[in-house]
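User: I've been trying to design a sequence by hand for this structure and keep getting stuck. Would you show me what you'd pick, starting by listing the structure so we're on the same page?

Assistant: Good idea, let's start from the same input. This is the structure you sent:
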């Protein structure tokens, strides 16, 4: 499986460029989903979303569309993975599981100043549910209702594997012990291109590869050249040939490059989002 998409879809600067003039904001996700095969929800990183929002998003995309979901920064950046049992359950109780079979990987991104702490990582990995049915039960039992803006939605319309990936930004993770820890817990390593701002890690540690392209030469801003897109297309083909699922998201949104680069990579790989 190859999925290509963008990190987020609600950007004012995209209106009149990627989104046609006059397109209602409520139809922007529908517009993106007709042209791509996946979107990475990043609003969930900044705040807990409403259950009604998750249900609405699921209703606006095709049946075979997939959402990757970014875990809350409260867990990764503020709590730094420590004492996060209730916050994890509360996040899962916001309705994310109502995406059903449109739910793809859960992305956990660590801050640049947080180095490699194997025991802390292992304890966090042990908390992560590996099936949506387990996530539903955990959310129902452990969430904090006072943190939610609507009644909890821990529903689980389908029982399926729940996959997790980790993006790190500190050079201390460049050790075989980190790779071994990810493999032992079946956590995918995120391949993140940040225009040299942070180190890139690209070991295969699970049955999926999650790629985040933050900018070719300028973080969050520059587009990817034809040559760069050709190189990424070749890497995606190699991962697919190895039997891996591949998810690729463009996060170079500042100058409206992300959706066009995603569509250009899609074309190179012969992927038609309409079929």
């Amino acid at each position: 499986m190859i999925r290509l998409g963008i990190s987020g879809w609600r950007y004012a600067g995209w209106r009149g460029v990627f989104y046609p003039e006059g397109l209602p904001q409520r139809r922007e996700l529908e517009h993106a989903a007709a042209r791509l095969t996946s979107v990475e929800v990043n609003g969930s990183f900044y705040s807990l979303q409403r259950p009604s929002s998750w249900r609405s998003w699921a209703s606006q995309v095709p049946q075979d569309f997939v959402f990757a979901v970014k875990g809350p920064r409260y867990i990764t950046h503020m709590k730094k993975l420590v004492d996060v049992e209730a916050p994890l359950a509360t996040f899962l109780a916001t309705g994310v599981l109502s995406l059903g079979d449109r739910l793809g990987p859960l992305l956990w991104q660590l801050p640049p100043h947080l180095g490699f702490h194997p025991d802390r990582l292992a304890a966090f990995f042990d908390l992560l549910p590996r099936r949506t049915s387990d996530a539903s039960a955990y959310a129902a039992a452990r969430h904090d209702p006072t943190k939610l803006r609507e009644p909890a939605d821990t529903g689980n319309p389908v029982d399926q594997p729940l996959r997790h990936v980790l993006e790190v930004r500190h050079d201390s993770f460049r050790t075989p012990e980190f790779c071994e820890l990810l493999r032992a817990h079946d956590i995918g390593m995120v391949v993140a291109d940040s225009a040299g701002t942070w180190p890139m890690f690209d070991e295969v540690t699970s049955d999926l590869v999650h790629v985040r392209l933050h900018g070719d030469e300028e973080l969050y801003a520059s587009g990817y050249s034809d040559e760069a897109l050709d190189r990424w297309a070749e890497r995606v083909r190699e991962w697919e040939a190895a039997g891996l699922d591949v998810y690729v998201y463009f996060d170079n949104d500042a100058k409206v490059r992300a959706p066009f680069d995603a569509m250009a990579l899609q074309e190179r790989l012969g992927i038609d989002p309409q079929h």
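That's my pick for every position. To get oriented when you compare it with your attempt: The chain has a mean pLDDT of 94. The domain at 2-268 is CATH 3.20.20.410 (TIM Barrel).
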